[in-house]
From TrEMBL:
Family: Belongs to the SYF2 family.
Ranges of biased composition (kind: Low complexity): 25-34
Keywords: mRNA processing, mRNA splicing, Nucleus, Spliceosome
The organism's taxonomic lineage, starting at the top: Eukaryota, Metazoa, Chordata, Craniata, Vertebrata
Name listed for the protein in its UniProt record: Pre-mRNA-splicing factor SYF2
Tagged with keyword Nucleus: yes
A Pfam family per the record: SYF2
Reported function: Involved in pre-mRNA splicing as component of the spliceosome.
GO cellular-component term (any): Prp19 complex
């Protein structure tokens, strides 16, 4: 639009110059030249009008598209990319089935060695929580999480190996009880880790047991939670009023 306005300004200045030239050149030749210039100006004005119409049309289309984008959910682009990827996978599976090939083998052939190694490293780093199955599985998961945090001291290991020799690697005949004295740093690390576990365990939320003998002063679960919160914050201020209402002695 700024370019169109500048071009319109140049046309107006050209018109003023041509009017001055027409006043200075009388005769039929001047009239024909003026008519020709008039036709040229009209043609340029029509072109400018068409350009302005196209600019307004494109602007309106862009406003409509932007309004559509704003009304879409925030994760629409990710969902769209996911759907397009799934469609491509389905098309490749159909092509492989038509050629009598195994899609998994074809997919593995297209994966580079660097991508395969990177995905394997990501899989090893992951420790998916499959939910509670039994206490043994939960204990194993806790043990694996704690052992991943251990950073071995290789210098201390080399010193112990030089000091104890083959006795550092016990066998079935070795007597282990009382032979190892932990260092002060090791004890401090263990205490810090236990304190961290206790602090994390205190943040766990437990499910409150249901009391069958409690008074029913609610109409649904949501109202029960609201009453519990109100009692927690304002119970000590309204205890006497509640007792009077229950006894029927309220004024």
């Amino acid at each position: 639009l700024p370019g169109l306005l500048a071009e319109c300004g140049s046309l107006q200045s050209e018109e003023e110059e041509e009017e001055e030239e027409e006043a200075a050149e009388p005769g039929p030749a001047a009239a024909a030249a003026a008519e020709q210039r008039r036709e040229e100006r009209l043609r340029r004005f029509r072109e400018l009008h068409m350009k302005r119409y196209e600019a307004c049309k494109l602007n309106s289309q862009e406003v409509v598209e932007e309004d559509k984008r704003l009304k879409l959910p925030p994760n629409w682009e990710a969902k769209k990319a996911r759907l397009e990827w799934e469609l491509q996978v389905q098309e490749k599976k159909k092509e492989c089935a038509a050629r009598g090939e195994d899609y998994e083998r074809v997919k593995l052939l297209e994966i580079s060695a660097e991508d395969a190694e990177r995905w394997e490293r990501k899989k090893k780093k992951k420790n998916p929580d499959l939910g509670f199955s039994d206490y043994a599985a939960a204990q194993l998961r806790q043990y694996q999480r704690l052992t991943r945090q251990i950073k071995p001291d290789l210098e201390q290991y080399e010193k112990l190996k030089e000091q104890h020799g083959d006795a550092l690697y016990p066998t079935s005949d070795s007597l282990l009880h009382g032979t190892h004295v932990p260092s002060k740093d090791g004890v401090d690390r263990m205490v810090a880790d236990l304190e961290k576990q206790i602090e994390k365990r205190e943040k766990y939320s437990r499910r409150r047991p249901y009391n069958d003998d409690a008074d029913i002063d609610y109409i649904n679960e949501r109202n029960a939670k609201f009453n519990q919160k109100a009692e927690r914050f304002y119970g000590k201020y309204t205890a006497e009023i509640k007792q009077n209402l229950e006894r029927g002695t309220a004024v």
